[in-house]
Design brief:
WalR-like, elongated, phosphoprotein, six-stranded parallel beta sheet, Response regulator transcription factor, alpha/beta, DNA-binding, 10 helices, single chain
């Protein structure tokens, strides 16, 4: 019996996943919840075989939770479900020791088969997403440009970013301008959108 924990913040989708998996005679859903902060304590308590996680969860996002699980509950393998088929997200998931990565529009059979495979120690990656990741070019921003853009994405202005990074306001503006140019963006907001869609932020 494969013991599964599910974290998905969309109530209807989470209930549908649970209902689908309950039809499988060899899969037992031992916990389901909507907030990422519950993943680690519940996994420590229940010791599931597989954690099926949404990437974008409130509290603690799915990728952060996956990385925490790989250290704290190493026998629990993780599988990400996402509606955002971005190559950058796949790369971040692999860096977080995720064993499976499926899109939410995958068929129910594909999901249950993937859970069984991940429980056996196999890796399951959506093939279209794997191809897209191979075709995707390298991330063009320097670590500092990415850091500045990440603060800008949180709504902080150049002065606030400069204070946090111990830089001058002019230097911060230069980094932002450089990021906008490298991403062929129209402005700072467009650069943030491009970086988010690529999974770099």
């Amino acid at each position: 019996m494969v013991r599964v924990l599910i974290a998905e913040d969309m109530h209807m989708l989470r209930k549908a996943l649970v209902a689908l998996l309950e039809f499988e005679p060899d899969i037992d859903v031992v916990a389901e919840f909507s907030d990422g902060a519950e993943i680690l304590p519940r996994a420590r308590e229940l010791r599931p075989d597989v954690a099926v996680l949404d990437i974008d969860l409130p509290g603690v996002d799915g990728l952060t939770a996956a990385a925490e699980l790989s250290t704290a509950v190493p026998e629990c393998r993780t599988m990400m479900l996402t509606s955002l088929g971005r190559p950058g997200n796949l790369r971040r998931a692999l860096a977080a020791h995720v064993s499976g990565f499926l899109l939410k529009d995958s068929s129910p059979d594909k999901l249950s088969d993937a859970i069984r495979a991940v429980a056996k120690g196999e890796r399951v990656i959506d093939p279209q997403l794997a191809l897209a990741a191979l075709d995707d070019g390298p991330q063009p921003l320097t670590p500092r440009e990415l850091e500045v853009l990440r603060f800008a994405a949180k709504g902080e202005d150049s002065g606030q970013i400069a204070a946090k990074l111990f830089l001058s306001v002019g230097t911060v503006r230069n980094y932002l301008t450089s990021a906008v140019t490298k991403l062929d963006a129209r402005n700072r907001v467009d650069a943030i959108r491009i970086a988010r869609e690529a999974g770099w932020l």
